[in-house]
Amino acid sequence: MAGKVRRWHRFGVWLALSVSLMLVATGCGEREGAKETSAAKPSAEQVQKTELLGRTAEELYQKAKQGHVSGSLMALQQLSDQIPKIRFEGLTSIEGMNALTRAVTDAKRVFNAASFKPEEGMVAAAKIRLAADALTHPHTPLWLQYDKLLSDDVDLLEKAATDKNRAEVRKGAALLEQHIGIIRPSLLISRNPADVEKLDSLATFIKLQAQGEGELYRNVLNAVPPLRGLLDKLFLKRETTAYLPYPEQQNPILWIVTLGSVILASLGFAAWRLSKKNGGLVPVRRPDHESREAE
Question: Which chain regions cross the lipid bilayer (predicted)?
């Protein structure tokens, strides 16, 4: 029996050491991941080129405000020349890069239209300005100012659906779609594209309900809570403000070693108690239910 106790003790020690080593390896991996993340800061060249992009986008916005079509087209051409020269790795995802490129392409179409509409030109220029700013100011982008507008849109939808006011539901759905459309390229640059796709799906669902019949009011009300939750996530209102990065985990090795020590001590104590119980003897029983203690 003493040999069996020793085997259990060795097994406990082996288990504790294995778990400790696994946790240490995990912690080291997390620390290396944190180092890689912190190392993925924009280079001086990236910063210089994105700042130039931001200045050109601001120029485009001002030209659009003035109704200066030729000046706007000139700024758009400059943007088209600058974007391919920027290395977007570490700045945004492929979806974000494509969203910026698409915004410039769409703006060219607006300003080149036979019947140019100044309000459409302003919207197109605003999209590009916000997208460029999301690249140059990743922690304090201008598009965060749309938080209040989107919250008001959701409140309008909720009240209209509660009051069963179809006209107001349609108005709220149209405003929501418009405001999301303006910041969509910026969202794809700054946030997880999967979350942006979820936002698109919710906005489309609400729009279709507003145009339909039947249980439209109940369906809109059912869509409001997940819509609010998703907006909170996109605007980082759940755990931290948009102006502060998430805190990195500090000293992961410390808690890993501590946890491993606790496991080792617990198993060691259990083995010690087992060895002391009944003088180190373990009661056994025969199949015929007769029992005897080994001496």
Answer: 253-272
Supply 145's token pair.
């100012």
pLDDT in tens, 41-70: 889 999 999 999 999 999 999 999 999 999
Q: Which two tokens stand for residue 6?
A: 């020793």
Query: Amino acid identity, residue 192?
Result: N
Is the pTM higher than 0.85? no
Rounded CA separation 233/158 (Å):
19
Q: Hey, what CATH topology would domain 43-138 get?
A: Four Helix Bundle (Hemerythrin (Met), subunit A) (1.20.120)
Reading the block at residue 78, the tokens are 């400059």
Sign of CA dihedral 204, 207, 211, 213: positive
Residue-wise pLDDT tens digits, 220-244:
999 999 999 999 999 997 543 333 3
Residue 209 · residue 164 · CB < 8 Å: no
**Position of tokens 């000139």?**
74
